[in-house]
Amino acid sequence: MADITPVLYVTRIESFSACHRLNSSQLGEKDNQDIFGKCNNPNGHGHNYKVEVTVKGKEAVMATLDHKNIDKDVPYFKDIVSTTENVAVYIWKGLEKLLPPNTLYKIKIHETDKNVVCYKGEWM
């Protein structure tokens, strides 16, 4: 009988606090307000994010986000709207560089108790 090794996934939960503003540089002020509503506040708004990273190995990245203004302190978001979906992609890209190929499985971010984003590195 061949040796069978189970595949295990380890999830690490971390948190960070940051503010952001949903605003696209490709849209005018009215379009941004119509699309993003109160989330387009010029002063931004804050969240206490909870991030779940599931891997077959290690993890890192929180220092670039924790207690930062995502729009102003994280160069990646200079021309990318800082939606939680895009934050998940940013975390994925950062971790993917540090881990062996094909070990990162899923990024899950809890923006609020009711809003959760999962990203598995897939593109359509």
UniProtKB/TrEMBL annotation:
Its cofactor is Zn(2+). Keywords: Lyase, Metal-binding, Tetrahydrobiopterin biosynthesis, Zinc. It holds the Pfam family PTPS. The keyword Ribonucleoprotein does not apply. It comes from the Eukaryota. Pathway: Cofactor biosynthesis; tetrahydrobiopterin biosynthesis; tetrahydrobiopterin from 7,8-dihydroneopterin triphosphate: step 1/3. It is an enzyme of class 4 (lyase). The keyword Membrane does not apply. SUPFAM superfamilies: Tetrahydrobiopterin biosynthesis enzymes-like (SSF55620). InterPro entries: 6-PTP_synth/QueD, 6-PTP_synth/QueD_sf, PTPS_Cys_AS. Its EC number is 4.2.3.12. Belongs to the PTPS family. This is 6-pyruvoyltetrahydropterin synthase. It comes from Priapulus caudatus (Priapulid worm).
